[in-house]
Amino acid sequence: MDIDDFAHTTPPLLPERFLTGPLRGWGVIETVLGRLIRRFTVEAQGTWDETRSLLSFHEDWSFDDGHTDHLRWRIRRTGAGSYSGTEDRIEGDAKGEQAGAAFHWRYTRRVPQKDGGEVKLDFDDWFWRIDDDTLIVKGSAGRFGLPFATAHATYRRSAAHIAPAV
């Protein structure tokens, strides 16, 4: 899959527009063979600072086994269709590209585990805007180019909170 495959799709998915305001998410994580690992919910909130081209995006993940994870993203638009981001547990910068209704986001993150340890994983996430209220995400996690888990998530928000498309 290539980001350019989505250049003519609509509605456009601009992270600084869609991820601004409150969002809720639901999803599952499965093995590459399709076995369910965990279910989760996400409460998220984004704030866009136009003068700094900076999106502050906070995600609070709650898993069905009682584990939680909190991500505090700082995502910067670096040009037309390009983004970079930081988060306390990622290595280097996350890299993103946007075209049409799609956003592709890649990064390496130390993921906290329920036992207090951490596991370093490479993430390759695809986001697709479905309509004014809905975003679908498919993310793979693995190491050395080999995925071993896939997350499927749906994010929803109130249409009243969506910034107009540009």
What features would you describe in this structure?
By secondary structure, this protein is mostly beta strands. It has one helix at residues 15-18, and strands at 21-31, 36-49, 54-63, 68-79, 82-86, 90-99, 102-112, 118-129, 134-143, 146-156. Helix content is 2%, strand content 64%. The protein has a ten-stranded antiparallel beta barrel with strand order 1-2-3-4-5-6-7-8-9-10. The longest helix has 4 residues, at 15-18. The mean pLDDT is 94.
Order of helices and strands: HEEEEEEEEEE
Briefly note the structural class of the backbone: mainly beta
User: Which percent bin holds the helix content?
Assistant: under 10%
Oligomer: single chain
Straight-line N-to-C gap:
25 Å
> Biggest β-sheet, characterized?
10 strands, antiparallel, barrel
* Beta-strand segment tally: 10
Strand content: over 45%
Strand arrangement within the widest β-sheet reads: 1-2-3-4-5-6-7-8-9-10
Which segments are poorly predicted (pLDDT under 50) over 5 or more consecutive residues?
Answer: none
